[in-house]
């Protein structure tokens, strides 16, 4: 449910305008087909579904691989769970309600939802821009124990939104799914209908989009989400119980449906130009710092090209959606796995193919001590042992005997790593500190994604290993 591990800073490539005014050539189509096919084979990701917008038009949509045993061959009209890519729709709902004169984004949360910590100081805008200070209820890249049981938005609020804030509202940026649950509750209270019904009435029907609640996108006719423990065998992932994604990531749709929304963004249609601009304007903190995040979307610029982006992670699914509004271009990639960087690799490769470009990676921070700690845990997993005192309750829940066996079997077979290095700098998330690592072997590389409690001896909330292409 989060844009994590493989951020836009490491994957976005930027288009050159002269290439945009034409459909994909046969060579470009073949290059994309080869890219996706090879990436799926290299990572073990079962399937991918892609849509490409060029010159403001949908010019390519295709699916590859195994979506589920009863869907063969793969079809582009099959909806995938898009998780946090849904956030921009929740934000759009509040913008529309503001247009209708029913609220303003600078209203305090307490006006609509009682009992939230410092709700009289948190604004709706801060919910949408991740600057509220509300602790994130799902920072992990796996489902934790409570997610085996259905939940209501109010139960999420009662457990996470009534804790002390992680910081005073407006002073920091920290991704918070909790804030979006509260935002969804506000939409429903003000609109007098469910969030999904409001979106259908005001957005989806008008754009001929057909999303559904991702809790219902399970079973025959839908993709199965998959997981791997390290480089172990592919295993169907047990979906989260109903209610856990809600307004923070409740939608399932086809890549082509999301492309219709991207085209509306490019054309400044459906929503007013002011609403599009509000969503795409980076929110600033109280000290004036640019967060790089607007209302449900990340915003950036490279070599003069504006991009609007968001990724998403559900249980067994990853997604990436990048729009270049001024270049009238967009790339959407869905996969039915919650491991590996395949979705980012495919997005990067498509943009490189369809829109010739360059990309730059951010330098890694000096993380010598923390890297050594992470390497020690990694080595334990290679040997099938684990210092459980170094893990939180949720991390210990994740590392079942099956998980440990898969980690040991798959990682030990790789031999001794040539290098174990940080992948970017630390980031605060949900009360934890995220750090990523790249592990290099003689003939392949794997990624490590961690969350740990703050402080020198903080326990690990997450320690995941995944293949990369």
Describe this structure in words.
The protein is α+β, with helices and mostly antiparallel strands. 30% of the residues lie in helices and 19% in strands. A six-stranded antiparallel sheet has the order 2-1-11-10-9-8, with helices on both faces. Strands 12, 13, 14, 15 and 16 form a five-stranded antiparallel sheet that branches. α2 runs antiparallel to α11. The N terminus is likely disordered.
N- and C-termini, Cα separation: 22 Å
Figure out the total of helices. Answer: 14
- Proportion of strand residues: 15-25%
Radius of gyration using CA atoms only: 21 Å
**Biggest sheet layout:** 6 strands, antiparallel
Low-confidence parts: 3-21, 358-364
Quaternary status of these chains? single chain
Give the helix/strand class. alpha+beta
Helix fraction, binned, reads: 25-40%
Order of neighbouring strands in the sheet with most strands: 2-1-11-10-9-8
Provide the residue-averaged pLDDT: 90
Outline, from the CA principal axes? globular
Helices and strands, in order, run as HHEEEHHHHHEEEHEHHEEEEHHHHEEEEE
How many beta-strand runs? Answer: 16
Keywords:
469 residues, alpha+beta, six-stranded antiparallel sheet, five-stranded antiparallel sheet, 14 helices, 16 strands, disordered N terminus
């Amino acid at each position: 449910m989060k844009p994590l591990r493989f951020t836009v800073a490491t994957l976005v490539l930027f288009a050159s305008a002269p290439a945009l005014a034409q459909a994909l050539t046969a060579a470009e189509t073949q290059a994309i087909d080869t890219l996706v096919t090879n990436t799926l084979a290299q990572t073990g990701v079962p399937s991918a579904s892609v849509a490409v917008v060029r010159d403001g038009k949908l010019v390519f949509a295709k699916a590859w691989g195994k979506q589920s045993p009863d869907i063969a061959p793969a079809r582009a009209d099959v909806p995938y769970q898009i998780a946090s890519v849904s956030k921009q729709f929740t934000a759009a709902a509040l913008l529309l309600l503001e247009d209708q004169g029913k609220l303003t984004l600078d209203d305090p949360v307490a006006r609509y939802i009682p009992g939230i910590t410092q709700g009289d100081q948190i604004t709706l805008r801060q919910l949408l821009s991740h600057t509220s200070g509300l602790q994130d209820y799902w920072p992990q890249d796996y489902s934790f124990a409570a997610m085996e049981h259905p939940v209501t938005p109010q139960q999420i609020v009662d457990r996470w939104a009534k804790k002390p804030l992680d910081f005073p509202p407006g002073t920091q940026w920290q991704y918070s799914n909790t804030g979006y649950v509260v935002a969804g509750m506000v939409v429903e209270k003000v609109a007098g209908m469910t969030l999904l019904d409001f979106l259908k009435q005001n957005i989806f029907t008008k754009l001929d989009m057909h999303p559904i609640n991702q809790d219902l996108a399970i079973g025959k006719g839908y993709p199965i989400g998959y997981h791997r423990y390290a480089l172990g065998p592919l295993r169907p992932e047990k979906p989260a119980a109903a209610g856990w994604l809600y307004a923070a990531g409740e939608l399932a749709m086809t890549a082509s449906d999301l492309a219709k929304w991207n085209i509306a963004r490019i054309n400044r249609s459906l929503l007013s130009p002011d609403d599009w601009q509000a969503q795409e304007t980076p929110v600033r903190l109280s000290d004036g710092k640019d967060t790089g995040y607007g209302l449900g979307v990340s915003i950036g610029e490279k070599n003069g090209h504006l991009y609007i982006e968001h990724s998403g992670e559900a249980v067994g699914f990853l997604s990436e959606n990048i729009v270049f509004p001024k270049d009238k271009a967009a790339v959407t990639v869905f996969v039915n796995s919650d491991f590996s960087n395949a979705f980012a690799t495919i997005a990067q490769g498509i943009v490189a193919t369809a829109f010739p470009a360059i990309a730059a990676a951010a330098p890694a921070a000096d993380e010598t001590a923390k890297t050594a700690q992470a390497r020690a845990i990694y080595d334990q997993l290679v040997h099938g042992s684990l210092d459980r005192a170094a893990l939180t309750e949720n991390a210990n829940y994740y590392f079942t005997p099956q998980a440990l066996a898969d980690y040991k079997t798959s990682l030990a077979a790789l031999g001794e790593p040539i290098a174990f290095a940080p992948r970017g700098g630390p980031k605060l998330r949900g009360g934890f500190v995220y750090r990523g690592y790249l592990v290099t072997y003689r003939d392949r590389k794997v990624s490590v994604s961690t969350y740990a409690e703050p402080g020198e001896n903080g326990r690990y909330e997450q320690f995941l290993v995944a293949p990369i292409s």
